[in-house]
């Protein structure tokens, strides 16, 4: 069923809070087979709220509203909906009792009492977490769901009471599968998967870029989850075939989680030596719970002196090739593995800028070195962007390079 | 001026991501004197996007749009806006050059080239972080601002380029002064500055919490900048008096920038030893350009073995007090300063969770050690939150503790 979400609250329009409700509901409605075509946020103003609601009713069948059910004067959602559908607001005794228990007031204030009214004929949605109940109103072929604004109350009410009703209205489900990609830009992806992105059929395929990574989302609409997954499978298979090793995971798994998992499985330990990234790669690895099983130690060797003393890089190599070179990267990787007694050493050395670049070695030049039980590999990068971006991409590339080395190894 | 925000992206309607852009823009537009009356989210669909845009144009003067500027086929925002206003899309050579530099492609693919087109007569908004530029189109008394979808790109473009234009459309000037705070929660701040926050006058005072820090923004509306600054001064003075040492900087200066600056001024060098934060503190310090002048080296000693071998923590101390203790923190700080030959050593050791907690040493227990030319200081923290949050807060607290030590020192 086509759906729209209306979020009510001046605090949203002032930017005081993020609208997490709209995301939550969009996702859950899709899973229940209702596709959200529009999300609208409007303030606590009866006239503008009525306008938004009227417009939505002209376009769509299912409207889910959050906010404006509370005790204060500017909580207007129920009143506006009731007026629009010519329904009286009736006192719900069960809700009244619950509000009494929850507030500890025997003689309820008018403000608190106000919350216990719901439109005549509506299905009550109890609020187990707060005081204001919600409801579902069916009228003139439309379905309007009223939920409270506080996310904890909204989610509880949705999952315990609203979802089961909404299931009945749906003609099917929407299921998504997400492929996570590293080493390709969104524009490159657009070339490789052009035919998929242009399909506006079922399933749909769409790219998404964020924080240095790209994902591809495949979404199918079907009568049930199994059927949807069956529709996604051949599309995913073809995309996986085309992108090959560039896909590092599915769903929400991060690059560092993949690497830690691979290391654990292969019973391999790791140590890191970082120059320009200054601990960013190690920090990402250590953010994975249980990283201590495989992460031995990390050295942040920013100066040449530290590279020599801690990692055993020779002054000869630094003099001949420079601190930012394939040779230094490899010595750093070997050095840290030796120091830590780990199976693998990974290093990053580069010029993050803004200063320090030369025509031969410009800002953004980065070398990644990997020493793995005596075998060496090195990757040269020329990155573009500000200092923070170059450092982030360097750390991600190091993780991805390690992932590819481990993958080859396990074959 | 009345404003609306239109967010474009099917990923928002599917609930794959939270719409933080709408919040950010609502807040910033208000500060610039534009009140947002509606936020709308629509998918990557030309027809529905055009419909939303047409409706908004009937209601409002200023429309700020995010998303749909990228290289793929379903990025349609510019095309839709150009069509609606009968404008051609013209190739912008500066953007083209920038995309070439950023992607490293000499012969740009059609997908990448697509991004460099903007509607005829529009004001260009450069993208310093990504590839797709934005623009501002003025037509028929309306102002349409197009910004990219990824929050990092959007915020950079808004602050560096869009905001100054949007200032001109409001009457008078809005001037903000930002005080950066560490060591107080937003709710504590609400207590201390209650009287200021409740003033809905001119200037306004508002708190912002993000990424473990809190800021207070004082905003005045006046006929000119000088007048606005004059209105802000006494308010700022009173707030600074109340918050004292908790204020570490003004404007956009980060905690790590303050620390690096203090170290530079005092000609002091530093080395870091991190356990649970795994390089996060060092990484923050090294993100400051020119950090190499004062940062000697960092050790990520996750295991007890590494703490002993690299930092000289004795097995006696580890056995008696444990790896997460004031004693170990101090030994680590001293150890890394000795190893690096630096004036100052800073250490972090703690339990970031989710596992590893005990009733005596629960998850979130963190010790920060500082060794400064023979003098020792230690700070014990009990943090709450997930692993990532505990690690972030630990790194920030370490920087703040060092800041306070350096401040006392310089007195």
TrEMBL record, chains A, B:
Which intervals hold domain MoaB/Mog?
4-169
Give the highest taxon in the source lineage.
Answer: Bacteria
- The species this protein belongs to is Kosmotoga pacifica
Give the family, as the similarity comment puts it.
Belongs to the CinA family.
Concerning SMART domains, the annotation shows: MoCF_biosynth
What is the name of the protein in this document?
CinA-like protein
């Amino acid at each position: 069923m086509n759906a729209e979400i209306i979020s009510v609250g001046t605090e949203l329009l002032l930017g005081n809070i993020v609208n997490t409700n709209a995301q939550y509901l969009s996702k859950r409605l899709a899973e229940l087979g209702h596709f959200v075509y529009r999300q609208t946020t409007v303030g606590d103003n009866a006239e503008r709220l009525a306008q938004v609601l009227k417009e939505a009713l002209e376009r769509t069948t299912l409207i889910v509203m959050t906010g404006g059910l509370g005790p204060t004067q500017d909580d207007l959602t129920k009143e506006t909906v009731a007026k629009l559908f010519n329904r009286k607001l009736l006192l719900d005794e069960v809700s009244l009792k619950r509000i009494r228990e929850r507030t500890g007031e025997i003689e309820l204030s008018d403000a608190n009492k106000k919350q216990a009214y719901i439109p005549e004929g509506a299905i009550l949605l109890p609020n187990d977490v707060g005081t204001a109940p919600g409801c579902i109103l069916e009228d003139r072929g439309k379905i309007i769901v009223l939920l409270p604004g506080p996310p904890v109350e909204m989610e509880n009410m949705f999952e315990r009471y609203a979802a089961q009703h909404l299931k009945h209205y749906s003609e099917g489900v929407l299921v998504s599968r997400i492929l996570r990609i590293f080493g390709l830009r969104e524009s490159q992806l657009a070339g490789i998967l052009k035919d998929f992105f242009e399909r506006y059929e079922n399933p749909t395929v769409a790219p998404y870029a964020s924080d240095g990574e790209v994902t591809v989302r495949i979404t199918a609409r079907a009568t049930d989850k199994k059927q949807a997954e069956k529709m996604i499978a051949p599309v995913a298979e073809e995309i996986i075939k085309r992108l090959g090793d560039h896909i590092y995971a599915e769903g929400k798994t991060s690059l560092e989680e993949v690497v830690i998992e691979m290391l654990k499985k292969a019973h391999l330990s790791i140590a890191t030596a970082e120059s320009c990234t200054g601990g960013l790669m190690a920090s990402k690895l250590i953010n994975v719970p249980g990283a201590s099983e495989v992460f031995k130690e990390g050295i942040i060797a920013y100066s040449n002196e530290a590279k020599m003393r801690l990692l055993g890089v020779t002054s000869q190599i630094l003099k001949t090739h420079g601190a930012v070179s394939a040779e230094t990267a490899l010595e750093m990787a070997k050095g840290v593995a030796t120091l830590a007694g780990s199976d693998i050493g990974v290093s990053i050395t580069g010029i993050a800028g803004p200063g320090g670049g030369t025509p031969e070695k410009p800002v953004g030049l980065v070398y990644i070195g990997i020493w793995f039980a005596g075998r060496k590999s090195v990757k040269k990068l020329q990155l573009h962007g500000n200092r923070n971006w170059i450092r982030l991409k360097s750390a991600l590339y190091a993780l991805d390079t390690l992932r590819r080395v481990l993958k080859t190894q396990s074959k």
